[in-house]
From TrEMBL:
Domain ABC transmembrane type-1: 88-289
Domain of life: Bacteria
Coarse class of the protein's main subcellular location: membrane
Name the UniProt record assigns to this protein: Carbohydrate ABC transporter membrane protein 2 (CUT1 family)
Membrane topology, record value: Multi-pass membrane protein
PANTHER family linked to this entry: ABC TRANSPORTER PERMEASE PROTEIN MG189-RELATED, ABC TRANSPORTER PERMEASE PROTEIN MG189-RELATED-RELATED
PROSITE patterns in the record: ABC_TM1
Key words, A-Z: Cell membrane, Membrane, Transmembrane, Transmembrane helix, Transport
UniProt xrefs under SUPFAM superfamilies: MetI-like
Residues passing through the membrane, by range: 28-50, 92-113, 125-147, 167-185, 270-289
Native species: Luteococcus japonicus
Length: 304
């Protein structure tokens, strides 16, 4: 029984050796370049992790290029000084509804664009993409004035307007992110076999049933990939939060780093620890959805 194993293994090793390309000068230069870029890319992150684990007293005495003075106190101090518990809750209130609404609206628009051949499909898709190309700074004053005049019930806002509410930040993020999601999902849905929908129509499935029971389950990889990207972008968004929110208690987690910096003195190790805490949720989301991330972005790219 062991004889075939001994004969197969050398053959596999010979095939692997034959498939290896020779180390030419170009290949060596490529590996050196990629290795250098990887080090440059990882250096700030690794340095921030190292700084977050060191005490300020040690680094002030021995310098930041020294090695030692390790402690976890920076993380507990950063959590208390930055009020991270309340700010994490604010970010969740903004990020979760914004991601869900963006994907839901974009999937419905993409379904219509991909399933029906209207002459306005290209125009609609171009309009959605054009919204993403506009710089947010150009829309700052119009959006601020608009939200200042839109009246809402007092149980939503004490001022009676959309300004200074989490709802305003959610709406502006949904408006900006729906275009990109529509573009990605429409390309993905165009790659789905038409025979599935023809069979569904023969079985008497309604249009809503084709969207809800057929299209959305098939788009799960692309929806997972977009959910990862959108959660990261909206979670890290700070511009519209500073424009539309005026009460510091409603600010998202990205504003907590400013609470760790003083006017005359800043503990860089403390700020590094705060940055690590803030980055943790995005890493958790990525590793939880990484199975669908790459496949969701690449599938459907052959259809325009």
């Amino acid at each position: 029984m062991s004889a075939p194993a001994r004969t197969v293994a050398p053959i596999e090793r010979e095939e692997v050796a034959a498939s290896r390309r020779p180390w030419s000068k170009g290949r060596i230069a490529t590996h050196i370049f990629l290795g250098g870029m990887a080090v440059l890319w990882l250096f700030p992150l690794l340095y921030a992790v190292l700084a977050s684990l060191r005490s300020y007293a040690y680094t002030s005495e021995h310098g930041y290029l020294s090695f030692g003075g390790f402690t976890l106190e920076n993380y507990s101090k950063a959590w208390e000084a930055g009020d991270f518990g309340a700010k994490f809750l604010n970010s969740a209130i903004i990020t979760i509804p914004a991601v869900v609404l963006s994907l839901f609206f974009a999937s419905m628009v993409a379904f219509v664009i991909s399933r029906f051949s209207w002459k306005f499909n290209t125009i609609m898709l171009a309009l959605f993409l054009a919204g993403n190309l506009l710089p947010p700074q150009a829309l700052l004053i119009p959006v601020f004035k608009l939200f200042q005049r839109v009246e809402v019930p007092f149980w939503i806002s004490e001022s009676g307007t959309l300004l200074n509410t989490h709802l305003a930040v959610i709406l502006v993020n949904v408006a900006f992110q729906t275009g990109f999601c529509t573009f990605v999902l429409s390309n993905y849905m165009k790659a789905l076999p038409k025979e599935i929908y023809e069979s569904a129509m023969v079985d008497g499935t309604s249009l809503w049933g084709q969207f809800w029971r057929i299209t959305l389950p098939l788009c799960r990889p692309s929806l997972a990939a977009l959910a990862t990207l959108e959660a990261t972008w909206i979670y890290n968004e700070f511009f519209w939060a500073t424009v539309l929110l005026q009460n510091g208690d409603k600010f998202p987690i990205t504003s907590s780093l400013t609470n760790l910096a003083g006017d005359f003195f800043t503990d860089n190790n403390l700020v590094a620890a705060g940055s690590m805490i803030i980055a943790l949720p995005t890493l958790v989301i990525y590793f939880a959805l990484q199975k669908h991330f790459v496949s969701g972005l690449t599938m459907g790219e052959t259809k325009g």
